Amino acid sequence: PPLDEILNLHDFEAVAKAVLPAKAWAYYSSASDDEITIRENRAAYQRVWFRPRILRDVTSVDWSTTILGSKSSLPVYISATALGKLGHPDGELNLTRAAGKHGVIQMIPTLASCSFDEIVDAAQPGQPLFLQLYVNRDREITKKYVQHAEKRGVKAVFITVDAPQLGRREKDMRMKFVDDGAGAKVQEGQSGVKKDQGVARAISSFIDPSLSWKDIPWFRSITNMHIVLKGVSTPEDAILAYEAGCQGIVLSNHGGRQLDTSRSGLENLIDIVAALKTKGPWPNPNFSIFVDGGVRRASDVLKALALGASAVGVGRGFLYAFSSYGQEGVERAIEILRDEFEMNMRLIGARSINELVPEMVDASALHAH
Ligand code: FNR
Predict the structure, then answer these.
(1) pLDDT of 192 over the 50 cut
(2) What are 290-334's pLDDT values in tens digits?
(3) CB of residue 168 inside a 6 A radius of ligand 1
(4) Which of 38, 59, 115, 205 would you call most buried, defined as having the most Cβ atoms within 10 angstroms of its Cβ?
């Protein structure tokens, strides 16, 4: 359908499913094992209800924010999704260009199809970018990569901590790995590619499963970028991240692609905020909580923000947008979210995102299922 008939982020998914080659659809849409967590990521948002406030003069509402010190036109960033060229010949550059035009922040994946420098070169001067990091067994490679990113102006590094081994995504595994030239430019020194286990496993064998809390001071010693751990699920680990001197955490289950039957980030948020409040002032300007997984509507984002998140990540929503319509699709997705924010902020009675408070949601059914 023509782009102006796309009315919400779900519509992009339907188009992507229809237009993508079977292998690309399998890699993008798949989740691990029985795909319970991916379903729960959406379902959790549907168990939280709004408690809107009225008569607050919502003539002008502002949903812009600052994420890790960088301005963002939305309280949403584009989360890293690997292998953009499986979906569109311009791959991740679709995201970079649309993000630059609309003041949104993109997280560059370690396993991007375009090279890191191509992506940074496609950004506008001063356009903020984040980096998603898979840590290599060869730490020299990781060190060079991180320091190069910092030199090129990247603001924050999101270390993925929920993937010491990639999950079994059986839809993807059934497709086998056929090299069609769209593969990631994986980092030097990678070896042991297994071609019979689906795209995900074939590209990920360099990831170091020995990564531990002891490595965090090393990351701090090699970079001044903000350090965020992507893939935290418990208050225990949230506190360890805080005490290790990280600048934030992403409550994420990797879009349901790692440990199946993990809880959703939204469901973990309440306990984790409560735990961090015991550690100091809240909101803490030096420690941010992000959430991702299943976010497709601005109303989802408002729920996470009301419950204490600083911003929210969206993966497949933008991935499907460029897979179906390239850069224009991503721009449309951003515009759709912007329109949804305007309307929902008015209807909930919040003039800025600071006015989104826990009392604006009823989360009493969130754990009751
Ligand atoms: C991902 N995600 C991901 N995360 C990461 O840290 N490194 C990566 O390389 C990838 N690659 C990737 C590929 C694909 C196809 C998907 C769908 C996801 C996870 C991603 O950053 C994010 O956590 C989830 O996508 C959020 O869930 P939604 O928005 O897709 O529901």
Answers:
(1) no
(2) 999 999 999 999 999 999 999 999 999 999 999 999 999 999 999
(3) no
(4) 38
The backbone region for 167, taken as left when phi is positive above 0, alpha when psi lies in -120 to 50, beta otherwise, is beta
Question: Measured at the alpha carbon of residue 286, what is the angle toward residues 68 and 304, in degrees to the nearest 5?
Answer: 65
Question: How far is CA 328 from each of CA 19, 62, 93, 245, rounded to the nearest angstrom?
Answer: 16, 24, 12, 39
Query: Atom 3 (ligand 1): residue with closest C-alpha?
Result: 81
Q: Does ligand 1 have an atom closer than 6 angstroms to the CB of 29?
A: no
CA distance 272 to 358: 14
Paired tokens of 306: 């009301």
pTM reported for the whole predicted model = 0.96
- pLDDT at 85 > cutoff 70: yes
Exposed/middle/buried for residue 1 (C-beta within 10 Å: 0-12, 13-18, 19+):
exposed
Nearest to 142 by CA among 160, 162, 163: 160
Q: What is the ipTM for the molecules in this complex?
A: 1.00
| Whether the Cβ atoms of residue 48 and residue 361 lie closer than 8 Å to each other | yes
